[in-house]
Design goal:
- This protein is of the alpha+beta class and 589 residues long.
- It has helices spanning 39-47, 62-68, 75-82, 88-100, 111-115, 147-159, 181-193, 226-237, 315-329, 340-347, 349-360, 406-419, 442-446, 450-453, 482-495, 564-579; strands at residues 123-125, 134-137, 144-146, 165-168, 174-179, 255-258, 272-278, 285-291, 304-311, 383-386, 392-397, 403-404, 423-426, 432-438, 466-467, 496-497, 504-507, 521-530, 533-542, 554-561, 582-583.
- The strands form five sheets. The protein has a five-stranded antiparallel sheet. The chain has a five-stranded antiparallel sheet with strand order 3-13-14-11-10. Strands 15-17-18-19-20 form a five-stranded mixed sheet, covered by helices on one side.
- Helix 6 runs antiparallel to helix 7 (181-193) and helix 6 (147-159) runs antiparallel to helix 12.
- It binds siroheme and iron/sulfur cluster (SF4).
- Iron/sulfur cluster (SF4) is lined by residues 468-470, 474, 476-477, 507-509, 511-514.
């Protein structure tokens, strides 16, 4: 508690929660009273041999139960009907103790428990690449963290020895890698004590709340969205303790709040994108709703106009009711057709608005297309920039492919404390920035050794690099990404002069966690041949635009081997022909 920033908008800042953010192992997530079963459903559940008390069905409405009992429900629904993952955050505590006492080991756990249900506690078993170890994904609303939290992350990651490392993710979030069940509960509780949590960060839950890395300090924002993002995160996770009411969705869901014309959180690829704007008639600052943006192996959908305008004080209720609508009405059959877009398309945008409004008990206003006289260029937040607060600056630094160590976490926190206000921000480009740096501190801050590794003024290619996890840790990966991405970009920087930033995104498979469709140049893992033999390759996408009026990149070439002798010249020719890059003059021998 106590780290909620005040909102600059007319809406009062939310009250600090009555309960502290610290976690007490309990069944507090049971606060939600689900709808009583109808006799007909009770009979069907009994006939199906489902243990209602342990099943997700306990937590669904009757319409949700109908859908979760449909004849052709997908495998994940069957697993959730058998036993739901919402108890995982309690199970982790018990498991840790048993493992430490030598009474159980990860191999003793059922496949669904270890590989699926623990994701409700944010624990992702890396069965394929590092069996017995887990990645823990957190929730860092609006990508904002404090020195205390960063120092705890350093301690937790350090506890994991040489296998421990971390990521800044494409949802401005942290992940910790290399933990076993023997450490997971200790870290789980340690995080809760510093106001962080990993609950409901995987499987069919809401992902990290994204906003703006420069919220509250940006001279060009319509409003500061941090307060709303904290409130939303608290609503979604029940203050980090887990929320049974929203833990049985038909699929993952991404929500992003964009407070400026830059669209920092890429609302067009979020299931629910709230875009700040000024109402043309009333002059109030509120949000237009975008719905249904998502990527998957089968379909990549740009969000559609949700024809809804929200006042600021409607946002939390709207999101809660939209999640309940999704939970109750979303289909649970073909898992490739369960993201929010499918429900919105089935209902139609206007009926969807009416339904959410009905649940809120209001008539929601229709949306509008804001008209701007000028074209807005999405800003880079790296470098040193004056804030809206006079005499204060933010300093943004590039974190290559988002990979970090325990020492980096420690240094992030130290620098925030020494030169700034004890906070940092993360970006969806996997970078970091320090807000509220007084002008007098800028010179000495730049001399910190950390900035040799994480450049404040990176090159035009390295500074915009994004990469998903890839084959080093991800079992779905077709290729290695992060290490390769860093190596190739270094070569490109050495060999080319590029007149302006070019955003190169890598993603190890078509799930597109590295968001290749929004990139200038996107590289997606795929099959290729080299000298007649199968090898790691990429499909190349070119021409994505972000910010105002975004467009998806389209496929340019496929089957390109990742081997440096093939890929490097290919990328160089794209950079020269399409982005005005020039070969650097060879330095004299
Ligand atoms: Fe993702 C699954 C990593 C952002 C679409 N994603 C996975 C898994 C959990 C697969 C697995 O079990 O190994 C990956 C974990 C690898 C690991 O060890 O880190 C994984 N996704 C990531 C992260 C860490 C990539 C990164 O390096 O930054 C990002 C974590 C964000 C976070 O903090 O929550 C991440 N994933 C995304 C995004 C980007 C975004 O949100 O803007 C997308 C595309 C947008 C979207 O979801 O519509 C994305 N991830 C997927 C999908 C495809 C979803 C679908 O509807 O089919 C999967 C597969 C799935 O869910 O079945 C997936
Ligand atoms: Fe793994 Fe594929 Fe996502 Fe990369 S895009 S993290 S390889 S699921």
């Amino acid at each position: 508690a106590g780290r909620r920033p005040a909102r600059t908008s007319a809406v009062a800042a939310p009250e600090a929660p009555a309960e502290p953010r610290s976690f007490a192992p309990s069944n507090d997530w049971g606060v939600y009273e689900a709808e009583p079963l109808t006799p007909e459903l009770a009979k069907r559940i009994e006939e199906a041999g489902i243990d209602f008390e342990n099943s997700q069905l306990k937590w669904l409405s009757n319409s949700g139960r109908e859908r979760a009992l449909a004849p052709k429900i997908n495998k994940a629904e069957k697993t959730k009907n058998e036993k739901h993952g919402i108890t995982a955050w309690e199970d982790v505590g018990e498991l840790g103790r048993l493992v430490r006492e030598g009474k159980t080991k990860w191999e003793d756990l059922g496949l669904d428990d270890i590989d699926v249900r623990l994701k409700w506690a944010g624990l992702f078993h890396r069965r394929k690449r590092a069996p017995g170890t887990f990645m823990m994904r957190l929730k860092v609303p609006n990508g904002e963290a404090t020195t205390k939290q960063l120092h705890y992350l350093a301690e937790a990651t350090g506890m994991l020895g040489p296998d421990g490392c971390g990521d800044i993710t494409t949802r401005a979030n942290f992940q910790i890698r290399g933990m076993t069940l023997a450490e997971a509960d200790i870290i789980f509780h340690g995080l809760q004590e510093v106001g962080l949590s990993s609950v409901q960060s995987g499987m069919d839950n809401v992902r990290n709340m994204t906003g703006s890395p420069i919220a509250g300090i940006d001279p060009h924002e319509f409003l500061d969205v941090r307060g709303l993002n904290y409130e939303l995160n608290d609503m979604i996770t029940n203050y980090g303790k887990g929320n049974a009411a929203l833990a049985s969705l038909p699929r993952k869901i991404n929500i992003g709040l964009s407070p400026s014309r830059d669209d920092f959180p890429h609302t067009h690829i979020n299931d629910v994108g709230l875009v700040a704007c000024q109402h043309p008639e009333t002059g109030e600052i509120g949000f237009n709703v975008e719905l249904g943006g998502y990527f998957s192996t089968k379909r990549n959908a740009m969000s559609i106009f949700g024809n809804t305008f929200l006042a600021q004080d409607q946002v939390v209720d709207y999101c809660q009711r939209t999640l309940e609508t999704f939970r109750d009405l979303g289909r649970r059959e073909d898992r490739q057709k369960t993201r929010l877009m499918w429900l919105v398309e089935e209902m139609g945008v206007d009926a969807y608005r009416e339904e959410v409004g009905r649940r809120m008990g209001v008539q929601l206003r229709t949306g509008f297309h804001p008209e701007y006289a000028d074209k807005w260029e999405r800003r880079s937040v790296l470098g040193i920039h004056p804030q809206k607060q006079e005499g204060l600056f933010w300093v943004g630094a590039n974190v290559p492919a988002g990979r970090i160590t325990a020492d980096d976490y420690q240094a992030f926190g130290d620098i925030a404390e020494k030169y700034g206000d004890g906070t940092i921000r993360l970006t969806v480009e996997q970078d970091i920035l320090w807000p509220n740096i007084p002008e007098k501190n800028l010179e000495s801050m730049q001399k910190e050794p950390l900035f040799q590794k994480f450049k404040i003024f990176p090159g035009n290619l390295e500074g915009s690099l994004v990469s998903c996890t890839g084959a080093q840790f991800c079992g779905l990966a077709v290729i290695e990404t992060k290490n390769r991405a860093m190596h190739i970009v270094k070569k490109l920087e050495e060999q080319l002069d590029t007149p302006k930033p070019v955003r190169i995104h890598w993603t190890g498979c078509p799930n597109s966690c590295g968001q290749v469709q929004v990139a200038d140049i996107g590289l997606m893992g795929g099959p290729a041949k080299l000298n007649g033999k199968a090898t790691e390759g990429v499909r190349i996408f070119v021409g994505g635009t972000i910010g105002q009026d975004p467009t998806f990149a389209s496929e340019f070439e496929k089957g390109i081997a990742c081997d440096e002798s093939i890929l490097l010249p290919k990328l160089k020719s794209i950079l020269v022909e399409k982005f005005g890059a020039k070969e650097k003059a060879l330095s004299p021998a």
